[in-house]
Amino acid sequence: MRLNLSSMKAVIPIAGAGTSLRPHTFTQPKPLIPVAGKPIIFFIIDQLLSVGVNHFVFIIGHLGDKLQMEIERAYPNLTKSFILQIDRTGIAHAIWTAKAEFQDADQILIALGDTIIDDNIQKFIDTEHSCFGVKKVQDPREFGIAEFNDAGFVIRVIEKPKIPISNMALVGLYKIKEVPALLSAIEYNIENNLKTHGEFQLTDAIMRMIEKKIKFEAITVKNWFDCGKREILLETNETLLKKYAVNNKTQRTFPNTIIIPPVSIGENCNIKNSIIGPYVTIGNQAIIEKSIVSDSIIGDFSTIKSIILKRSIVGNDASIKGLSQSLNIGDNTEIDFS
C-alpha cells in the first residue's frame, strides 16, 4: 500500500564544493557531472519522482546558479525551491538553513546530491518508521556508520569513526517522519557548537533523536555510488550504462567508426575514424576524430583528436589533440612511442 505523499518533501543538499573532483568542479558543480548520459542530480530527481515525491527543496552553494539554471531547464513543471547555504559547515547546517521550506511537512526525504542509489527506493516510502539506507563497506572510517539490532532498528550512528562500530555505511538517503524533532536536534547541536570533524553532521542530529527514543530503521540497499571521487564516478558510469544505455542514442552510426556498447552519445556529435566504448558517456556536440575512447566521460562541446583515452574524465569545452604520424616502416623494425 502506497502512502499519501502530498505532504512529503524532498530536501537535497547540493552546496558542496566537490574538492575531490577538481579541476572539474572549479567550473562545473559536481551534481551536474554526467554519468550514463545525464547529470548525477537528474538521476536523483527522476528516482524520487518515480515513487511519487513531487515537492523539492534544493540547498545550493558552490556554482549554485548553474545548478538552478539546469534544474529549471530540465524540470520546468517541478514544484521546487532553491535555498542558498552561504556558510558551508555541514549537511545538518544546510538542512537548518532551508528549514522554512519544509518544517510544515509531515515527513521529508533527505537525499544527498552527489549520491546515486541503484535500488528500488519505494521501501523507504513504505517503511513505518523513520529510516535511512545502509550498505556494507570495506573501510568504515570513510563514512557515516550505523549499528543496529536484529530487528533492524538503529542503536547508534557516528560520522567517520576512527574505531568503527560496524561496517554498515550510511548511503545518503534518509526518511524523517519526526520533522520537528530533527530540527530541534540540529538546533541544539548548532547552539552548543557540537561539531564532528569540524562540521554540524546529520549523523549527530540523528543520534540525538535516537537518544530521545525516536525509532530509526536501517534499510539495506543493493548498490550505492558516492560520486565524489574520480574512480567511483567512472565505476558509476559503467554500472549505470549497463543498466540504462539501451536506447536510440546507441543506434546511430558515424563514419568509419566502431561503437562498442554500452555507450551514451549526446546530440549533434561529430565522430569519425574512431573506436568508442565500452562504457563511454559523451556529451552534446562533442568532436572525436581518429581516437580510441573507452571507460570514460567526455563533456559537452569537447574536442578529442588522434589520441587513445581510457578511464578518463574530460570536462566541457576541453580540447585534446594527440600525435598523428604517417609512417613507412620496413621489415624487422621496432617503434616505441611511449
- Share of residues in strands: 25-35%
Which structural class fits the helix and strand makeup?
alpha/beta
Q: Helical element count?
A: 8
Straight-line distance between termini: 61 Å
Helical fraction equals: 10-25%
What coarse outline follows from CA principal-axis ratios?
Answer: elongated
Order of strands in the sheet with the most strands? 5-4-1-6-11-8-12
What number is the mean pLDDT? 87
Broad CATH class of the largest domain: Alpha Beta
Domains (count): 2
List the uncertain runs.
17-26
For the largest beta-sheet, the strand count, sense and barrel status come to: 7 strands, mixed
> What radius of gyration results from the CA coordinates?
22 Å
The number of distinct β-strands equals 25
CATH superfamily of the largest domain: Spore Coat Polysaccharide Biosynthesis Protein SpsA, Chain A
Q: In CATH terms, what is the fold-level topology of the largest domain? A: Spore Coat Polysaccharide Biosynthesis Protein SpsA, Chain A
Task: Give the name of the CATH architecture of the largest domain.
Answer: Alpha-Beta Complex
